[in-house]
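Q: what sequence does this backbone want?
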């Protein structure tokens, strides 16, 4: 048997396609655990900013924007904490990002008193409303091996009444599940977060960053990488690769990047490493304005690249399963910046929720609107007299209750008008919206990772026969872990780096809280509420 000897890590380069959290984490693990010099690492990002879905931008004059907010769970995010325990915070470099998060969550614990509302009244979301048949369906799901579920949809597994329970509304609006999504992903979530099952309605197990995730996590990680010489190639859209097959496997030999100056070719040595984020939940996003609705895009660069390289390499997965049904994978969010804080104060009073407590869903909304009022300030550069909140809707193609058009066709102003109707303050329009800016964001692939799938539709992190290519992010298969989490991306990066460098280090296993007798007992009791 021939043994291939790679050059020392100092003589190898690493190329990351995409600048999301998976790539940044991968670069950090190469430096921290693989001892690769930072100057050997190159991150190619089509935008002028890194961070991917963990975004946060703007200022009080032009308004703020966050397409979404990531939530965390201390018992479950093993790889994420492993990384951010070693990344210094921007505010105090003697303390880690995780230490700052720990302190913030001790002083701002989540406890949602008003998780669900209907026609201005608080719903007791702790009364899950599960029937005997519902509980049997959940138990049967947990006992069914994932491969036997195939591409079964949630609505095919549970009866229609299940989708009208408080439990489903709480579950769906925390995790963004739709009835047509994969029941196999629900099964994974139930195992991964079974310890949170009894308190889903209060969100007590959810932890957050001090500011938005870009300010709190991406910026310190980027600075740490830059300080070590990692190069960030902004405005570089990788459109294709030369992948050469041989008896020893498949080897990436070249990357092709589109830039403002034209096409650039990046040579890749056989001993170099290539890490590709195949698919992106925020790819193709379109941003609207106070008087402009966002457009709907139906493709994106990450998807086109994945399709290109998977065409002749079936072990690289099946991107069309996730990317070719935008009507089932899109939803819309909106960020509201308030110099006039009347609406902000009204939401706090109306929901009886202090900023930072949780997530409120308005069940009477045709769009299924939810709002999140984070602890203020939510941006590092946010003045005390400016407030920010965020919201989203799972059904943007339905006609509103107040605004007689689909959310997808609405301007930011119209979205706020619809929200004010559900907040029962529409009679105060337009003065309550004076000096308020709402920026809508349409995300065509935001839940693409939940699409019904078969084994093999997501490639392995390091596919069989791959000599120098690994996949990162939400569309690389990792048994037992759950997509739509920062943890899934960071775990993929750690797995890829450790395997590609053959490091004598173990990726922290997915915790098995579901095996603890106390967790099981508490879950059973909650299922009967």
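A:
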């Amino acid at each position: 048997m021939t043994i291939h000897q790679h050059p020392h890590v100092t003589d190898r380069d690493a190329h990351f396609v995409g600048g999301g959290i998976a790539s940044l984490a991968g670069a950090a693990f190469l430096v921290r655990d693989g001892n690769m010099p930072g100057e050997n690492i190159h991150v190619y990002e089509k935008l002028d900013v890194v961070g991917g879905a963990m975004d946060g931008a703007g200022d009080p004059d032009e308004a703020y924007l966050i397409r979404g907010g990531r939530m965390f769970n201390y018992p479950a995010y093993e790889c994420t904490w492993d990384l951010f325990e070693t990344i210094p915070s921007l505010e105090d470099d003697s303390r880690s990002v995780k230490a700052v998060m720990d302190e913030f969550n001790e002083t701002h614990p989540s406890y949602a008193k008003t998780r669900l509302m209907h026609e201005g009244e608080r719903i007791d979301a702790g009364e899950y409303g599960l029937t005997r048949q519902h509980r049997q369906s959940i138990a049967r799901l947990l006992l069914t091996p994932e491969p036997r579920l195939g591409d079964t949809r949630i609505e095919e597994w549970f009866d229609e009444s299940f989708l009208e329970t408080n439990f489903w509304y709480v579950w769906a609006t925390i995790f963004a599940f739709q009835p047509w999504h994969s029941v196999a992903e629900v099964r994974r979530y139930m195992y991964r977060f079974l310890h949170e099952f009894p308190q889903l309605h209060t969100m007590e197990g959810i932890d957050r960053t001090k500011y938005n995730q870009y300010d709190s996590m991406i910026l310190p990680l980027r600075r740490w990488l830059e300080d070590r010489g990692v190069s960030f190639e902004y405005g570089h859209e990788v459109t294709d690769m030369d992948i050469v097959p041989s008896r020893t496997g498949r080897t990436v030999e070249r990357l092709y990047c589109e830039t403002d100056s034209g096409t650039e070719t990046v040579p890749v040595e056989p001993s170099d490493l290539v890490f590709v984020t195949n698919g992106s939940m925020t790819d193709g996003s379109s941003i609207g304005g106070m008087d402009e609705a966002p457009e709907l895009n139906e493709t994106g660069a990450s998807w086109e690249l994945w399709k290109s390289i998977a065409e002749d390499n079936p072990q690289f997965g099946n991107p069309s399963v996730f990317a070719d049904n935008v009507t089932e994978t899109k939803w819309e969010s909106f960020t509201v910046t308030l110099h006039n804080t009347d609406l902000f104060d009204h939401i706090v009073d109306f929901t009886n929720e202090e900023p930072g407590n949780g997530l409120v869903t308005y069940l009477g909304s045709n769009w299924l609107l939810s709002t999140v009022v984070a602890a203020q300030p939510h941006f590092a550069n946010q003045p005390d007299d400016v407030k920010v909140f965020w919201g989203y809707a799972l059904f943007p193609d339905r006609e509103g209750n107040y605004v007689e058009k689909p959310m997808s066709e609405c301007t930011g102003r119209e979205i706020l008008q619809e929200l004010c109707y559900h907040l029962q303050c529409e009679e105060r329009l337009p003065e309550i919206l004076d000096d308020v800016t709402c920026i809508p964001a349409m995300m065509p692939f935001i839940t693409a990772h939940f699409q019904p799938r078969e084994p093999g539709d997501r490639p392995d992190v390091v596919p069989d026969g791959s000599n120098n290519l690994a996949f990162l992010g939400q569309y690389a298969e990792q048994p037992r872990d759950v997509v739509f989490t920062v943890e899934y991306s960071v775990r993929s990066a750690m797995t890829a780096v450790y395997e590609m460098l053959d490091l004598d280090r173990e990726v922290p296993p997915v915790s098995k809280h579901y095996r603890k007798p106390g967790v099981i007992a508490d879950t059973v009791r909650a299922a009967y509420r």
